[in-house]
Amino acid sequence: MVSQGMVSLTKSLCTMTPRVRLKNPNMLQKLKTGSCNFRFRNLRVLCTTKLSQWEPSPFIHASAEEAADLVLDKTVNVFESIISESAEEEKVDSAQQRTNSQVQVLKWPIWLLGPSVLLTSGMAPTLWLPLSSVFLGSNVVSLLSLIGLDCIFNLGAMLFLLMADSCARPKDPSQSCNSKPPFSYKFWNMFSLITGFLVPTLLLFGSQSGLLASLQPQLPFLSSAVILFPYFILLAVQTLTEILTWHWQSPVWLVTPVVYEAYRILQLMRGLTLSAEVNAPAWVVHMLRGLVSWWVLILGMQLMRVAWFAGFASRTTTGQQPQSVASK
């Protein structure tokens, strides 16, 4: 009974014809020929008169082999693209490593060339050149000779700092190197430079104007220029160099004052020798000795700051290692 009911229901569904009001009379001919398609928005109704009771609906079946071939082709293409990208990345990395190794090989001679330039331009003329060949008395020629001697050192110091900057840069040129000194370091350097400039200037002004009666007798202008004018020029050059290293964020900002202050001590010792040649008064000699003591103190503090910075860098490195391990 159940099977007969299903058969009768199927017959009724197959013989049932939907009633549709057609505005176009040509659609009636299509209905008589056999099949028609109706589209109602997202609904598609397929009506056919040629299907029998037991004929299944026309489904399109794709073979499993064709589907598997399509999936395999797409998978192979994906893997080929990944392999090609990884090969390109390895080529780029190997090229960068070769470039970095070549740059490092070129930097090796700088470790010897930089200090040699500093020694040749700064220490050799001051230590081995006879002072009598440079100083011929309290005149303009002697002043220009001493300034030229200090300019040779300034050129050598500039070359040394440029070489040191190139050695301190990262191995990979694409990496940025931004080294900023702390504000306390800048303040202390500026304070020491301004103090080293104001003290002799005020003493000379007080002696020439007569405001300080103890600073007598007066020192002639050419004699004071021979002793102190190269000193003032070196102060100005050091100030300009430090400001530029701070502005460019160069890693040599910690070494710059050490280079100039070490030479300044030799320069002031030369001034003590010249003070005897120009018959400088006793207060000038004491002033030069005080300046030598001041810059030795400043140089010692700079060296202590270098040691502090090395310890700070080591603490920072050891602090970053556990973080990197934890991130891995």
Largest sheet: spatial strand order: 1-2
Q: What's the overall average pLDDT, rounded?
A: 74
| Uncertain runs | 1-23, 31-52, 324-328
H/E series? HHEEHHHHHHH
List how many beta strands DSSP finds.
2
Query: From the alpha-carbon coordinates, what is the Rg to the nearest angstrom?
Result: 45 Å
Number of helices: 9
Question: Oligomer, anyone?
Answer: single chain
Structural class by secondary-structure content: mainly alpha
In one word, what is the shape?
A: elongated
Distance between the termini: 73 Å
Fraction in helix:
over 70%
Largest sheet: 2 strands, antiparallel
Strand content: under 5%
Protein name: Cytochrome P450 family protein
Transmembrane segments: 108-128, 140-164, 185-207, 219-240, 292-313
Keywords: Membrane, Transmembrane, Transmembrane helix
Organism: Arabidopsis suecica (Swedish thale-cress)
Walkthrough of the structure:
The chain is mainly alpha-helical and 328 residues long. It has 9 helices and 2 strands. A two-stranded antiparallel ribbon has the order 1-2. α6 (183-209) runs antiparallel to α7 and α7 (221-248) packs antiparallel against α8. Mean pLDDT is 74; it is low at 1-23, 31-52 and 324-328.
